[in-house]
């Protein structure tokens, strides 16, 4: 895949995910990439998959430009960002200028992969956890792989509002209202005894620079996502360890006290693990599941891409439960949590 193709492919995906501005921005970058600049030279050094399944170079670039806007480093560019609608010519001129003036900032920014701690995915997590809670009347211990800033480890602090059903704690930090298709999920609010996550590059939502990175990878014409992220960041206290997810999981699986459900969760993260890590992780979880009991059950909840390259079908929601070793197909969910098709 060439860089131009990567920009255009990502542009189409963003349009399908409800962001006409990102489609416009990425299309312009693909059509008018400044090949003479140092940014272009740096991008040429990347090997392998440079699209959304790998290095995600288009999203790195878009995130860097959005960071310039959010941090007020590029006021001229900010005047052309949503909620304003501008011509291709005007936006392109401002983009090129920002890339010239702030090239050092952007060169540093694109060294790290995108991190989108999409809070709306918690709608599916709340529903799925309700299924687990109906099976086991025990407190939960949560473990998240690829947790980023840990915002989706806080799903018990969020409300899920559906036609005919409200699942909410006292004083929820935010409310999620996805388009829901299918039967309603169980009306259950598990007791979370402990929570923790792991990420190669964990972000601290209380740190202004880390919060900027989280916000910059949200799309400028979708302000509701920004509001949800701010609300989740304000109450997030989940510890996220820096490290390899499978190494961390190997230790975590041996440290869960009896009398608790251990719920392992990950959302659009497993696909980025190397194949060897996926195989090792699955083996570790299945071995732990074989040792699970009714008083120490294990649940593995995944919201992951199962091969749909367009994004139109969303992610598969799957749940495995032990000691029964039962596999449940819960349905599908939009990658950004806009809709859930519950089975």
Write up what this structure looks like.
The chain is α/β, with parallel strands linked by helices and 343 residues long. Helices cover 38% and strands 19% of the residues. It contains twelve helices and twelve strands. The chain has helices at residues 3-16, 20-31, 38-44, 57-70, 75-78, 88-101, 103-109, 122-135, 208-216, 223-235, 245-252, 275-290; strands at residues 140-145, 158-162, 165-167, 174-176, 179-181, 192-199, 240-242, 261-267, 298-304, 315-322, 326-333, 339-342. It has a nine-stranded mixed sheet with strand order 5-12-11-10-9-8-1-6-7, with helices on both faces. A three-stranded mixed sheet has the order 3-2-4. α1 (3-16) packs antiparallel against α2 (20-31) and α4 (57-70) packs across α9 (208-216). The radius of gyration is 21 Å and the shape is globular. It starts with a helix and ends with a strand. The model has no long low-confidence stretch (mean pLDDT 95).
Secondary structure: elements and pairs:
Blueprint: H1 3-16, H2 20-31, H3 38-44, H4 57-70, H5 75-78, H6 88-101, H7 103-109, H8 122-135, E1 140-145, E2 158-162, E3 165-167, E4 174-176, E5 179-181, E6 192-199, H9 208-216, H10 223-235, E7 240-242, H11 245-252, E8 261-267, H12 275-290, E9 298-304, E10 315-322, E11 326-333, E12 339-342
Parallel strand pairs: 1-6, 1-8, 2-4, 5-12, 6-7, 8-9
Antiparallel strand pairs: 2-3, 9-10, 10-11, 11-12
Distance between the termini: 36 Å
Average the pLDDT over all residues and give the rounded result. Answer: 95
Structural class assignment: alpha/beta
Our count of helices gives: 12
Numbering strands along the chain, what is their spatial order in the largest sheet? 5-12-11-10-9-8-1-6-7
Helix content: 25-40%
Largest sheet: 9 strands, mixed
State the order of secondary-structure elements, H for helix, E for strand: HHHHHHHHEEEEEEHHEHEHEEEE
Kindly provide the radius of gyration, computed on alpha-carbon positions and rounded to a whole number of angstroms.
21 Å
